Structure formats: structure tokens, C-alpha cells
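Input sequence (209 aa), recorded before submission:
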Amino acid sequence: MGYGPQGDHAAYQQQWSTALTAHKPGIIPLRPLGFGDILEGSFGALRRNPKAFVGLALLTSLVVLVVLAALAALAYLVATQLGDSASTGVVTAGLVGGFTLVYAVTAITAVALTGILAYPVGEGVLGRKPSASETWRRTRRMVPRLAGLCLILMVPTVVVIGGLVALAAWAFSSGSDGLGAVFVLAVVGVVGALVVLAIRFAMATPALV
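Predicted structure, C-alpha cell format:
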């Protein structure tokens, strides 16, 4: 190491670089992160506090399975009652409505779980290990806000895609194959746009919590 202003500046930078790299109270070092740091922190959070992450994820999955099972049972009962008398429009409306409900339930639970799990991740960065009960106690007051965010993100998607799918089904059932193909292409384009928007709004839920 040299002497003078340049040597002092280099030593100063080396000291702070070492300090920033070494300061890691929790799952990630407190410095600008690279992709490897983020990936390591994700697995580190799960290893550090599996009860909170796995327990809440299993509970949420159980709720989703119960709701989907109830919807499937209801659809089966309706189908057996209608039998062969069901028209194409009724079947199409049932399929669109069923897929919409499945998407709504899945989206709501995913948003809620992402928001709730943002708390143990933030605590894990500081070296803390909250339990599943503490996580729920700290985040339950955010559920109405998460529900509002979910509606903002979900309702336009359901309305646009559901409307296009219904129009495509109507066009094919009425014999307008060309018009149906146009609606199918429109659905593909909307899905592509939604993927871009989903990436841009991916951190909205953790940021809200």
C-alpha cells in the first residue's frame, strides 16, 4: 500500500468495502445486492424460518383446495341436474365462470400469502425469526389493504380476458370462425401484455406490507 492521498483513499475504500461485505445480521448482507445475493437470501429465509413459511403456505393451500373442491362439487351437481338439456351457451357460461372463480381464488390467496410472508422476510434481513402466529398477528391488519390491491390488479384482468373468451366462444358457437380466431388472438395479446405488467407490479404486495 502506498502513502499519500491516493494510498489513504484506497485504504479507506478497502475498509468500507470489507465492512459492507461482512455486515450480514440476517439472510442477506446490508449492501447493494446482486442476483446471487437475492437467490441466496430466498433460500436462506426458508431455511432460517421454515415453520412460518411452510406453515402459512400449507394453510393457504388448504383453503384453496377446500374452495376448489366445493366449486367442483357444485359444478358436478349442476351438470347432473341439467344432463343433456344443457345448451352450448349454458356450458360455455359455466366454463368461463368456473375458470374465473378458480383464477380469483388463486389470485387472492397468492396476493395475501405474498404480503403476509413479506413480514418474516423483512425480519430475517435483521436477523430475527418471527413465528407463524407472530407473523399473522403483525400482518392481519393489512388484509383489507391486500384485498384492495388484489381487486385493483385482478378485476381488469378478469373483465378483459373473461370478456374476450366469452366473445370467442360465442363466435365459434355461432359459426363465425374468423371472428372467433380474432378474439383468440386478442386473448393471446392481452396475456402477453399482462405478463409485462405482472413483472412491473411484482413488488407491489411486499411494498404495501
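Checked by second reader. Residues 75 and 94 are 8 Å apart (CA to CA).
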